[in-house]
Amino acid sequence: MSARETELHAAQGYTRPLVAVQVRNVGRMPVTVTEWNVAASPGGMAFRPVADSIGPPLPHRLDPGTSEVWAMDAGTVRSLAESAAKVRGTSPGATTITATVGLGDGRMVTAAGSLRV
Which end of the chain has fewer CB atoms at under 10 Å, N or C? Predict the structure, then answer.
């Protein structure tokens, strides 16, 4: 998220640090989002928010041309990155976090962007 976007969200009252994934259905058929997670690499540790997920309940149907956002507390993601660094024996700050979304047809789609933690 850019500094400008952070300022806009803060102006709207969103001050809690979050990590979010936006899912867009760019196809011509509806899709169902069944899960989402964040993973630390290298190392392969992942966290799937269930009770901690902020957004519509899953599974969630996305009609063509629509999008939705799911988020989780940034502190949890930071803890995941720190744990991955400890397991690998590397320094904190060298971990890349990516989000993956599971669809109803069994496909897993990885987000285009990533976060360095």
Answer: N
Q: Which residues pair with 109 in a beta bridge?
A: 101
3-state secondary structure labels for all residues of 53-105: CECCCCCEEECCCCEEEEEEEHHHHHHHHHHHHHHHCCCCCCCEEEEEEEECC
pLDDT digits (tens, 9 = 90+) for 52-105: 899 999 999 999 999 999 999 999 999 999 988 888 888 777 899 999 999 999
- Report the number of distinct structural domains present in the chain: 1
Q: Are 98 and 39 a contacting pair, CB within 8 Å?
A: yes
Which runs of consecutive H residues, i.e. helices, occur in the chain? 3-11, 74-88
Would you say residue 11 lies in a domain? yes
pTM over 0.90: no
Measure the CA–CA gap between 103 and 39, rounded to whole angstroms.
17
In a domain, 114, yes or no: no
75 located within any domain = yes
pLDDT computed for residue 53 by the predictor: 94
Q: Extract the tokens encoding 8.
A: 């806009």
